[in-house]
Amino acid sequence: MEDSEPQKPVVYNAISKNLLSAVHVNVAQESIMITEDKTYRCLNKWSKNVERQDSWIAPVSLLASLTLTFVTSSFDKDAFGISRYTWHAVFLIAIVFAAIWTIRALWLRWQSRDRKTVEDLIQELKNGAIVECRSVNAFHTSESHTNPGGH
C-alpha cells in the first residue's frame, strides 16, 4: 500500500473482501458538550441531594438505641467508677443531641424530597444551546469528504 493512497476503514475492507455480508449500524448518539465548572456544579448539587436522601438513617438509629437503653436501664448502681446519676445525665444529654440531629436530618430530607432521577441530571447537564449535526457517511473516501463548514 502506498503512502499517497488513503487508508480505508477496517469494516470497509472486510465488506470489499466479502468477509462480511452485512453491517448494521446503530451508533447514533447524542453528545453533551459542557464546561468543567458547570459539570462540577451539577454533580456537586446532585451528590448533595443523594446524600440527603439517606442521611436520616444514622441519627434515627442512634436516637432509637439510646432511647431504648435509657428506658430499659434502671440506673441503680454505679458503673466503671461513674455514679448512676452521671450515667442518667449522660444518656439524657445524648438523647437530646441525637433528637436534634434527627430533626435536622429529617428536615434536610424533607427539603430534598423531590427525588431526582438520572434522567433529570442528564437533562440539567443538557441545558443550553442545541446544535444539530449532519449525518456523516461512515465509509467516505478522501475524494468524497467535504468540509463540514462548507468552505
Q: What features would you describe in this structure?
A:
By secondary structure, the protein is mainly alpha-helical. The protein has a domain at 33-126. Helix content is 52%, strand content 0%. It has five helices and no strands. The chain has helices at 10-16, 36-54, 57-72, 84-111, 118-126.
Biggest pleated sheet = none
Based on helices, strands and strand pairing, what is the structural class?
mainly alpha
Please work out how many helical segments DSSP would assign: 5
**Roughly what percent helix?**
40-55%
Mean pLDDT: 76
Query: What is the assembly state of the chains in this entry?
Result: single chain
SSE sequence, one letter per element: HHHHH
Instruction: Show unreliable segments.
Output: 137-151
End-to-end Cα distance, whole Å, is: 31 Å
Shape field: elongated
Residue fraction in strands: under 5%
Q: Compute the gyration radius: what is it?
A: 32 Å
Number of strands: 0
Task: Write a brief caption for the model.
The chain is mainly α and 151 residues long. The chain has a domain at 33-126. It has 5 helices and no strands.
